[in-house]
Design brief:
Elements: H1 2-18, H2 24-35, E1 38-39, E2 44-47, E3 54-58, E4 61-66, E5 69-74, E6 80-85, E7 88-92, E8 99-103, E9 109-112, E10 119-123, E11 126-131, E12 136-140, E13 148-152, E14 159-164, E15 174-175, H3 190-195, E16 203-208, E17 211-216, E18 222-226, E19 232-237, E20 240-249, E21 252-260, E22 267-272, E23 296-300, E24 306-310, E25 316-319, E26 325-329, E27 333-337, E28 343-348, E29 354-359, E30 364-368, E31 372-377, E32 382-387, E33 393-399, E34 402-407, E35 410-415, E36 418-423
Parallel strand pairs: 11-15
Antiparallel strand pairs: 1-33, 2-36, 3-4, 4-5, 5-6, 7-8, 8-9, 9-10, 11-12, 12-13, 13-14, 16-17, 17-18, 19-20, 20-21, 21-22, 23-24, 24-25, 26-27, 27-28, 28-29, 30-31, 31-32, 32-33, 34-35, 35-36
Length: 425
Amino acid sequence: MTLALVWVLTITVTYFIINNTNPLPGIVEAFSKFSELSRPSARWTEQLGDPPSAAVVAGDAVVVVSREAVEARSLATGVVLWDRTTAWSAVAGDEAAAVVVVGARGGGIEVLDPRAGTVRWRDPEGVAAWTFRTAVLTLTCPATGGCAVVARAPADGAQRWRTQVPGLGRGDRGVNRQLVLPRDVTARYPAAVGAQPRVLPAVLGLAVGRKVEMIDTASGRRASALTPSGSVSVTLVGGRAVSTTTTPQGRSCGYGIDATVPATGAVAWHRDGYDPHTVTGAGCEEHRAPTGAAGALVVTRTDRREALLAGADGREVRVAAPGESVRSIGERTARVRSADAATIRAVDTASGKQRWSQPLPERAAVTVLRHAVLVLDEDTARLFAYDQDTGRRLLDARILGEVIGSGPTGLILARGRTIGFVAWS
């Protein structure tokens, strides 16, 4: 084997000598093209040890998460600030005040400064966490006694409340698991969406066994649990426990939506005839969560027009025109595609008013991030980014990687083990 390799190398070198050519520039050019992430070029690109799964901009650092490690890089240069192996990791807090929450390999939870990598606070008995902009919830399991969900301040770990949830135990390890949430419609870049710390909901829903446990996040009080079934789906929207039901009606399904106040079980509102998009395949069993976001559901009426239903009171926030469709929905706005598929409109999920509109490519994929709306032309790989509130164009670039994270000033792209930062133009 060794002699064969030497023979091949000898022939190759001899070829380049005879032809008086230097292969190095071509090799460098090929490597450069392979590591290129966008045109115009990223501000910086770097090679990682393992392919990244997600990233978050935290102040002047970029926190990069991979399967069993987390690292921070300078937002300005891409240089490594620190790295460590973990069981799992995620970001909590709000941008410049963000922290990195890690499950330590030997057990327990540590919360790190994103710039320095130093430990801010610990929960040595923690086994799981849920990360939000204004709180870190940990599942703490002491050596004696049952496990409890503990709400803490992201910056210093100060305890706000503590409550036991039957069914949660040491086996429920990980980060942001078991959350009961509506399902986004068509997010093209789910890793970038999922990496963003969420707004802490008024009521937290956790799937525990076959039940949905609900916790008031201001006080820590538990509400009565709900039990979904094949014909009943449960999610938390706008501070309400929303149950969707389906019944066979000939060759189609009948739909009902009931919303209750978690603390009391009182009925908040009821609607019939709105399809919440929970049924897949044959029959009328609900196999997935309803479409929507924290404050609104995306439904289809009996006249086949899509609508936004407010989670708090069930009113129709906006009814789409015939042929229009909701392409993606975020915390504050939904993106509605026009009937001719040539325009995308940003609609406020609270008022239903249009904020802005922009042209839409023929084959487009839309993702709503915290600061920007991304529109990918799937035929040309051209990516447009628009300001979430005003619709101002932030970026027009051809991308050669996947968007795995974002921040106020740009996007984090990845391709294999290459990562880079593309700033707004």
